[in-house]
Every structure is written in structure tokens, then in C-alpha cells.
């Protein structure tokens, strides 16, 4: 199946629905309302109408369960008890984020001069009627010559909404998705704006089964006004190329920018939220940009709170779910396009923020994540090192407008009542995680003046305390260039997103803590600790050696070398790549086991372990007992990992060790 085809079995049914609704609308509608067409499919009813040639006119969309009536005396259309769904601006039928041409839908052809509105269904309705009223200067127009009405739709049902392919350009397939501004029984809201079209890109061949999915945050590939300034796509240093699907979820709610543009000539904290299109891949209050342009000034609910909704995150998760649900026929068997155990995320800067926060908040989806120069804690603001999140600086002001200022922001909570700046703190999320988190590769710079170094060691310590696996790299990189891309770092060669493709959700893995001779990140000052270093980086395991049964576990652990830049030009571009090695041929570390597939670990259970020579199993390096914690996480303390490898064998103490 290629990109232009529908899911098996869906196309015929959709054509039947469209045909019935189109014929119904054309037959039942009076002649003066023939310019309104409605069609339902996949949880949404789409409306199109002929626009008045006046850019100042907006269009109010009404929906009722009774036909709209005409006052014969005044020749006006009566609203009656119909519900106002929302409104649409002039040119709503044009794909302004991409080509500027009319949107493509499978329901009806669109031409220039036609408006478009997508209504997401919240409950089953046997028959619904729609009308579109022009509004000029705040005054609703009601004459039959200007109102489009008489459109009738049958059997509207709640269902997961789907995106529609718009164009193929530069090897990227561009889709548009109209998400609801409210939750339904099957999906969450994507924005606070009715019928807002989001554009995203897909790269790869959706006609092949069982491919990895990489979510490349913030590459600016879905925005024609911003050319890709850096690639967020798996490349290859040590890893062979393979088929993959890359999802680019670029595109923010520009409606907020239009409503809250501000005055760019004013100081950053006074000009207003001029970059509200950037919500750092989380979200914002539901009334932001509608009632007010600053969260601090929005009205509180009955509990004295302002609710921050994770609109952008939900939009990304919805498209991942849609991609994972796509099936192709191979022989007599239907197979998924995406391997559900191989979903990954990555990005630079704000893209790294989106990748990390999304993956940690949804660990059941992602196998691994790689981020370069991300921020870990949006509440962090330090005096030790100046950056753009200090009080009064640009990014801090955007955050204050989106989520409230920190001193008074306890009234700003998410939909579960959690303080928003806890929800936007990775250390808090890790501390409260009740699952095995995705494996992380994170690269940061001690001289980063956008997201400072101060917060980084705290997060490293949190990951270690919770025994979650992270490979953390730091060097002397700064942020430079028009894209604020991290440059000039010794660890630049490690930024290879295909590295994380080796990890899978259905494989167990070790977590390394208390590593002997580990590099020192310091206490938060750029002057503390080692100038260049890595935590856990030299420790790995051979995934092909894992044996994970209900009563026995086996895995070979080993040391590895790392790619590292050893020579730069004056612009700090890497001229020569070398290899970095652990300081010793034997590294001692505590090893915990996560992602276990079959091996049963009982809370506080006692297990016998052996560490042997992989080439000579009779040669035992270490042996002893390991006890699981109250949550069933087992840790082997002081295990010696050798350059040549060491095989770890584990079984319940009373069963002995007969491997």
C-alpha cells in the first residue's frame, strides 16, 4: 500500500458514506443553500461553502437536530435552538501552512473561494443539520442570500479522527489533521481552537511492514516558511541503514500568534507572547488567546485554578497511534507498518525537550530517546549562570505567559491537578514514574547560554537514584548559528539518532549505577567537575545473548568505546573523529535489571547470581546473592564489567544455578 491509499476496507465504506451524504445534501437542500456541502467520516463531519469575497468576514458554524427554518416575512434564516460550534476565518479552505492551495479531503473537491470547517463528533446523532452564518464586524448576517444552510448528515458517530494526505514534496509526505478543541470518548483535545488544521510530515515507505518509527521533533520540515536548518533524522556512523518511518510533528497553533502577536519593539516581558506558536511540545490553558493573552490574567475556575492542557503532546501521541494502527496485506496476512516495540524520539534544543518529556510521560510507547541540548526543568532559574530562562529573559517570559509565573503559579495545574511546573520538571516525572522509562542518550553543553548547565547534574542524580538507564554526555559546547544548533562539542559524533534503534520495548536491559571512576559533572556550576565527560557511556551489553525465561536470566555485559571529536577548526567544526575508552579494562558498577519479559522477580525475593567468562563459562569471576527491592527491582551490587565481556547469570536462590 502506498501513501495515497486508504486502510484496507475503509475506502469503499467511506465512498459509500460520502456518496449518500452528498446526494442527501443536494436533494434535501433548498436551491439557495446548494453551496453548503456536508460529509461525515472517521468521527468528523466536514463542511464546505462558498465564501463572500470579503476578508473581514468570519463564518459562524451552527449545528442542530432540526432543519433550519426561514422567516418568510424577513427572508432570514432562524438559528432556533441550534448550537454554535465555532467560527472560521476567511480563506479557511486554503492550506496556508503548506502550498496555499485548497485543502484535499476524501469527501469532496475543494476550490479557491470555499470555506472549510471540521466538526469532531462527541456523541452519536441520528440526524444533524448544519448552517454557516457570515459575521461582519461582530454582526451575524441572516439573509437567505448570504447564509449557507440546509445540509443534513445521518449517523454521526464518535471515532478516532484521521489525517489526510495533502502533497508529496522533497521526499516528505505532508498530511493535515483537524483536531477537536475538546476531549471525546476516544481521543484528547489537540488545541483550544475549533477546526484548527495541523500539518505534519511523514518520511518513508508505508507499504512495508514492521518498520521502526522515529519521531523527529522540531526539524521545521512541516513549515514551508522555515526551511530545515538541521536534520532530525537517523543517520549512520556505526549503525547500518534500514527502512524506517520518520514522523515530523512540526506545526504549532498559529491562531495564538495571530491573537497575541504583541509589539516586537517592546522589551521581551512587555511585548506579549510573540512566540506563542512555541509551547515547548506541551500545551497551554484552554482560554489562552481567546479570553486573554497571558495565563496570569485568565479567570480561575471554582477551585481558584487555571487548567493547563497538554494539547501538543496529545496531538503527537494521536498521530503515533494512527501510524501504529496502519496495516498492510502481505500474502494472506495483515501486518502493522510500525513495529510497536521500536518507537523512538529525538531532537535538538526544543526538539530535544519535546522528545524527552513526551517519552518520559509515555514510557509505554517509546523504547529509547536521544536529545541534544534540552532543558530538564522549566521552573529552574539560577544566578550561577545566565541564560534565557532567567527572570526577565525572553524564554522565561514566554513560559510565564503560557503557564503562569513561578511565584504565583501554584494556581496553574494540569488536568490531574498537578502543579504545572512539577509536570514540566523531568526530575519530578522520573521520581513519580511507576514504569521502566525509555533508554536515554542526552548531550548537553556546560557553556549553553539558552538552557544553562545548572539544572543538569540534578537530573543525572535523579535518574541514578531511581535506577533508570541514561547515557549522559557533556562538553564545552555552546549554542550558535541561526538555528541555535549546539556546536563545538567533543561529543558531536555521538549525536547519531540511529544509535537508539538497537533498543526494543520487548527486550530486557541493564541499568548501571554507582559506576567506579565515573566522570564528575559537578554540582551545577560550569566550573565544577570535569569539563568533558560521560556517565555510563562506556558500559553496554550484547542484546543477542539475552536469555529471559520465567526462572532463569542470562546477559553478557561489556565495555565499549565512544566516538569523540579530537580536532576542531577555528569555527569549532570537527575535523577529526577518534575513539574514547574507559579508564580501565575492568569497571565496577551496580547492575539493575529492567524491561524483564519473562523472568519473575518477587518483591524482596532473594536470587543467586554468577558472573562468568563468556568464552569459558566454567571460569567464575564473581558469585553471590542479590535481593529485590519492595517494587521487584533486582540489583547486583559491585559487578565487575570487563572489556572482553562478562556473562551474568541469575536464578532464584532455592533453585540453584544450573545454567
UniProtKB/TrEMBL annotation:
Q: From which domain of life does this come?
A: Bacteria
Protein name as catalogued: Peptidase S9 prolyl oligopeptidase catalytic domain-containing protein
Species of origin: Hahella chejuensis (strain KCTC 2396)
Q: Mind giving the lineage of the organism this protein is from?
A: Bacteria, Pseudomonadati, Pseudomonadota, Gammaproteobacteria, Oceanospirillales
Amino acid at each position: 500500500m502506498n501513501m495515497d491509499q486508504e486502510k484496507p476496507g475503509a475506502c469503499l465504506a467511506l465512498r459509500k458514506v460520502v456518496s449518500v451524504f452528498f446526494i442527501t445534501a443536494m436533494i434535501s437542500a433548498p436551491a439557495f443553500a446548494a453551496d453548503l456541502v456536508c460529509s461525515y467520516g472517521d468521527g468528523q463531519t466536514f463542511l464546505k461553502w462558498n465564501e463572500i469575497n470579503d476578508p473581514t468576514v468570519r463564518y459562524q458554524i451552527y449545528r442542530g437536530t432540526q432543519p433550519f427554518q426561514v422567516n418568510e416575512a424577513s427572508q432570514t434564516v432562524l438559528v432556533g435552538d441550534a448550537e454554535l460550534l465555532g467560527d472560521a476565518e476567511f480563506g479557511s479552505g486554503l492550506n496556508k501552512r503548506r502550498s496555499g492551495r485548497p485543502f484535499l479531503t476524501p469527501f469532496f473537491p475543494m476550490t479557491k473561494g470555499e470555506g472549510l470547517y471540521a466538526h469532531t463528533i462527541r456523541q452519536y446523532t441520528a440526524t444533524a443539520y448544519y448552517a454557516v452564518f457570515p459575521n461582519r464586524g461582530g454582526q451575524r448576517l441572516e439573509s437567505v442570500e448570504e447564509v449557507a444552510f440546509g445540509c443534513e448528515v445521518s449517523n454521526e458517530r464518535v471515532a478516532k479522527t484521521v489525517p489526510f494526505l495533502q502533497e508529496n514534496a522533497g521526499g516528505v509526505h505532508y498530511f493535515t489533521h483537524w483536531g477537536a478543541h475538546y476531549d471525546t470518548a476516544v481521543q484528547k483535545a489537540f488545541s483550544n481552537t475549533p477546526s484548527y488544521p495541523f500539518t505534519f510530515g511523514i518520511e518513508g515507505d508505508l507499504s512495508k511492514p514492521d518498520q521502526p518509527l522515529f519521531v523527529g521533533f522540531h526539524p521545521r520540515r512541516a513549515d514551508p516558511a522555515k526551511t530545515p536548518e538541521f536534520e532530525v533524522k537517523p543517520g549512520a556512523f556505526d549503525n547500518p541503514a534500514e527502512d524506517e518511518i520518520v514522523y515530523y510533528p512540526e506545526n504549532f497553533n498559529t491562531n495564538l500568534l495571530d491573537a497575541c502577536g504583541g509589539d516586537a519593539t517592546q522589551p521581551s516581558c512587555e511585548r506579549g507572547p510573540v512566540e506563542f506558536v512555541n509551547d515547548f511540545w506541551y500545551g497551554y490553558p484552554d482560554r489562552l488567546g481567546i479570553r486573554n493573552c497571558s495565563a496570569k490574567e485568565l479567570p480561575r475556575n471554582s477551585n481558584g485554578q487555571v487548567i493547563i492542557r497538554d494539547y501538543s503532546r496529545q496531538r503527537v501521541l494521536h498521530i503515533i497511534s494512527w501510524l501504529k494502527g496502519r496495516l498492510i496485506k502481505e500474502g494472506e496476512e495483515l501486518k502493522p507498518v510500525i513495529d510497536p516495540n521500536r518507537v523512538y524520539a529525538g531532537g535538538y534544543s526544543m526538539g530535544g525537550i519535546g522528545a524527552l518529556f513526551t517519552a518520559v510521560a509515555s514510557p509505554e510507547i517509546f523504547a529509547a530517546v536521544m536529545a541534544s541540548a534540552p532543558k530538564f526543568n522549566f521552573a529552574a532559574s539560577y544566578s550561577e549562570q545566565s541564560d534565557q530562562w532567567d527572570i526577565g529573559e525572553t524564554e522565561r517570559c514566554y513560559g510565564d505567559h503560557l503557564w503562569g509565573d513561578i511565584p504565583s503559579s501554584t494556581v496553574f495545574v494540569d488536568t490531574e491537578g498537578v502543579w504545572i511546573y512539577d509536570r514540566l520538571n523531568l526530575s519530578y516525572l522520573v521520581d513519580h514514574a511507576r514504569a521502566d522509562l525509555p533508554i536515554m542518550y542526552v548531550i548537553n553543553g556546560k557553556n549553553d547560554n539558552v538552557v544553562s548547565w545548572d539544572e543538569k547534574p540534578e537530573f543525572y542524580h535523579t535518574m541514578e537514584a531511581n535506577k533508570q538507564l541514561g547515557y549522559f554526555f557533556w562538553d564545552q559546547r555552546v549554542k550558535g548559528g541561526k538555528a541555535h544548533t549546539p556546536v563545538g562539542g567533543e561529543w558531536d559524533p555521538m549525536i547519531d539518532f540511529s544509535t537508539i534503534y538497537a533498543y526494543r520495548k520487548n527486550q530486557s536491559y541493564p541499568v548501571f549505577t554507582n559506576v567506579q571512576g565515573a566522570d564528575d559533572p559537578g554540582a551545577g556550576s560550569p566550573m565544577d567537575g570535569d569539563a568533558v565527560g560521560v556517565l555510563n557511556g562506556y558500559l553496554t551489553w550484547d542484546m543477542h545473548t539475552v536469555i529471559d525465561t520465567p526462572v532463569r536470566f542470562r546477559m553478557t555485559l561489556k565495555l565499549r568505546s565512544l566516538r569523540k571529536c579530537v580536532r576542531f577548526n577555528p569555527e569549532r567544526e570537527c575535523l577529526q573523529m577518534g575513539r574514547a575508552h574507559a579508564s580501565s579494562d575492568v569497571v565496577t558498577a551496580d547492575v539493575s535489571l529492567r524491561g524483564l519479559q519473562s523472568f519473575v522477580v518477587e518483591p524482596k525475593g532473594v536470587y543467586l547470581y554468577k558472573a562468568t567468562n563468556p568464552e569459558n563459562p566454567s571460569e567464575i569471576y564473581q558469585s553471590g546473592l542479590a535481593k529485590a527491592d519492595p517494587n521487584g527491582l533486582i540489583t547486583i551490587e559491585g559487578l565487575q564489567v570487563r572489556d572482553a565481556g562478562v556473562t551474568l547469570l541469575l536464578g532464584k536462590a532455592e533453585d540453584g544455578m544450573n545454567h
